[in-house]
Design a protein that fits this description.
Blueprint: H1 2-14, H2 30-83, E1 90-93, E2 98-104, E3 107-114, E4 117-122, E5 128-133, E6 135-145, E7 148-157, E8 169-174
Antiparallel strand pairs: 1-2, 2-3, 3-4, 4-5, 6-7, 7-8
């Protein structure tokens, strides 16, 4: 009998037999590990989805800011061309779109809107440069107020996102150098 008790004591010291009151270490079951792993994967997946969504919105915001900057630069260039007009400015509508022809000195500058882009064409050297792309709407208007004739250019960018609060729209107004009714 004594031998059995000694073996029981040795086994208890090694941690083989655990009496109900003396258990100090506790292990994790494999199922618990899988549950914890699943929870961690769900949290990481949600964090990655939020990160990529924020990254996408950041890219769109940067692109919108660049479009606005380009539109303002092009609008100022258009206003300078209208102010330096040497003759009568004319509006031409054709199959491909609308063109505003501005004579200045020995050449003519045309702003052409067709296929969602605005192109500036110089008649003297035949150079054309694409100024803005992704344009939804563009229109040129002649406004007469008393003895002064002003030109108004309205343009609106096409929205990239489906649910957009407002699409960027611009209006530029310029008076030709002669400032008389044409």
């Amino acid at each position: 009998m004594q031998t059995l008790n000694r073996r029981a004591d040795v086994g208890t010291r090694r941690g083989i037999c655990h009496p109900a009151g003396r258990r100090s270490e506790r292990g994790i079951l494999l199922i618990e590990c899988l549950v914890y792993l699943g929870v961690v994967l769900v949290v990481i997946g949600a964090a990655l989805a939020a990160f990529y969504s924020a990254l996408d919105y950041s890219k769109r915001l940067r692109n919108n800011a660049e479009d606005i900057t380009r539109a303002l630069r092009v609008g100022e260039q258009w206003r300078a061309d209208v102010r330096s007009a040497a003759g009568s400015i004319r509006l031409e509508k054709g199959h491909g779109g609308v063109a505003l022809c501005i004579p200045s000195g020995d050449q003519e500058v045309a702003y052409v809107f067709s296929t969602n882009q605005i192109v500036r064409i110089k008649s003297k050297d035949g150079l054309s440069e694409s100024l803005l792309t992704g344009i939804k709407r563009c229109s040129f208007h002649q406004d007469a107020c008393g003895s002064v004739t002003a030109w108004r250019w309205e343009l609106e960018f096409a929205g990239v996102m489906k649910a957009v609060r407002e699409t960027p729209a611009f209006t530029f107004i310029a008076v030709p150098g002669s400032a008389k009714k044409q």
